[in-house]
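Dear support,

I submitted the protein below through the web form. The confirmation email said the job was done, but the results page showed an empty box. After a refresh the structure appeared. I'm attaching both so you can tell me whether what I see now is the final result or a partial one.
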Amino acid sequence: MSFVKAAALILLVLGTFGVHGQTDESPEDGNPPNWCRNGHFPGYKTEFRVSRITGAKNSRSYFYKDGGKCPEGNDCREIAYVIAGDEVIIAKTYGEFSCAWFQPKKGNATVGWIKTVDLAGIEIVERDPKIDMWAGSWVYGSSNIEIRRARGNELLVSGNAFWHGFGDNIHIGEVAERGRPSGNRLKLGGADEYDCRVQMQLIGRYLIVSDNRQCGGVNVTFDGVYRKK
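What the results page shows now:
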């Protein structure tokens, strides 16, 4: 093979990898844009919204898988579904689908793609909620966050998160900070990369929380969608 042909082949391969990286990686978290899953949901850098499923009474809106050719490919539809009137949290869109979080009254949350056409419009979330709306005892699984009002618009935040390993192996995380919300967002923690930093977004009756994985033992995180007790 001549030097010119070899150089052209190398450039072609490098160019292919470059295009692949640009199209498959999401700018918000480094993952493919067609990902929509529980572990990533609270950390999406977006303005979360609340919506409801539309349609005839008891009509179903199914969840769709992510990754690969999903949610648009064949065999992507899940068994899980929501029905007309169910409330969901929307993080982002991809084609004709919206990344949704559904929390039933009992049991674990379901996260996945649903068809945007099944949503009854994206509700406007209060951008500047009253300070007292933050206060209360918030829970997500075994994690808990207590928010109390201090002076003026300052909030006192304390909480615990847990990671359960094999047997009695339990790692614990803690947060104890104070801060002032900016609109419906609250950022807590130090400036150092190893300081515990927590971000919160209040949307209606939900408190969406994410952290930098520096708030406690290995695998411990406050990430989740919290609701008041």
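Response: this is the final, complete result; the empty box was a page-load delay. The helical segments are 3-24.
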